[in-house]
Structures are given as structure tokens and as C-alpha cells.
Amino acid sequence: MTKELKQDYTLRITQANKTQLVTILYEMILIYLDEARNALEVDEKAEYKNAIRKIRGCMNELTDSLHLEYELAQNLLQLYLYINKELVHASIHYDKESLAHVEKIIRPLKEAYSKLEMQDTSGPVMANTQTVYAGLTYGRNTLTENITDPSANRGFFV
Question: Could you list the pLDDT tens digit for every one of the 158 residues in the chain?
Fold first, then answer.
């Protein structure tokens, strides 16, 4: 993931509600799947393993956030456990097919959560974060983002 993309995701995470956080994790998984496939094509096994590790980290976050008292969460848990099994297989055998199975599951889930975002009117999960205004000033060929009150205490509350 590029530095700019990491900054974009960091900004989105600080401003996201619960549904948007799930969507962001799915998007990150898809990015890491692409990185894993690209690393496999150029035979960079260390980069491949690193991408798989990052996908598993995202999957752990998704699994930990499930409220298992609901039937839907239990169904998602079964999908997540299957994905984890496929990732272990992909990591050991350097298997593109397992990565394709993971993508076939994650892509529709991401699309479903993207639609749910429109219905979720709750506020951001993180409170007391800096407000970022984009588009107020422009540099040569770049957009500059301004942060309000950068010297203030930015303790994060969840």
C-alpha cells in the first residue's frame, strides 16, 4: 500500500462510523490481495507472505468485531474462518486459486456493506479527532489539506 493510500485510509478511519469501518477493512483486504498476487507473479515470496499477514490482520479485526449473539454474525464468522483457512493454504502453497476464493467472498461483502453505509446515520466511532478541511488551499499541482488546531490535545476516545 502506498504512503498516500495509507494516509487516505487513516483519514477515513478517523472519520468513519461502524459500518464504514467494516467497508474500509474489506477494501484493504482487496488491496492486499492484489499485492499478494503481484508479489507472486514476480516471485517475491517475502512480500507475498507480508501481504497475506496483512490480510489476516484485517480478518482478525473483522472477526473480533462480530457480535455473536446475532445469527448473521455467526454466519459471517463461518465465512471468516473459511477465509482464514484459505489464507493459510495460500501462504503455505503460494496458491493463487485460494486468493481467488477469498476475493469471491470479500468483494460481495464489501459491496453489501457499501450499500449499508447509506442507511447508517450514526456518527464517527472515534471522537476528539482533528478536523481536516480539503480544498481550501492549493499548491502547484496538489491539493493541500489543512488541519484545525494542530496544537490541541488529540487524545482519541472510542
Answer: 778 888 888 878 888 888 889 999 999 999 999 999 999 999 999 999 999 999 999 999 999 999 999 999 999 999 999 999 999 999 999 989 999 999 999 999 999 999 998 887 777 676 656 555 555 455 566 655 555 555 555 555 55
- pTM of the entire structure? 0.78
The answer to whether 80 and 10 have CB atoms below 8 angstroms apart is: no
3-class secondary structure, 131 = coil
Cα separation, 34 vs 47, whole angstroms: 12
Distance CA 41, CA 19 (A): 34
Return the DSSP state at 127.
Answer: B
Q: What is the Cα–Cα distance from 107 to 105, expressed in whole angstroms?
A: 6
| Lookup result for grid cell 488551499 | 137
The grid cell for 77 is 464468522
Strand spans (E) along 2-158: 132-139, 142-147
CA distance 157 to 150: 17
Residues 100 and 90: beta-carbon distance below 8 Å: no
CA atoms within 13 A on the CB side of 48: 20
**For 142, phi and psi rounded to 5 degrees?**
-140, 155
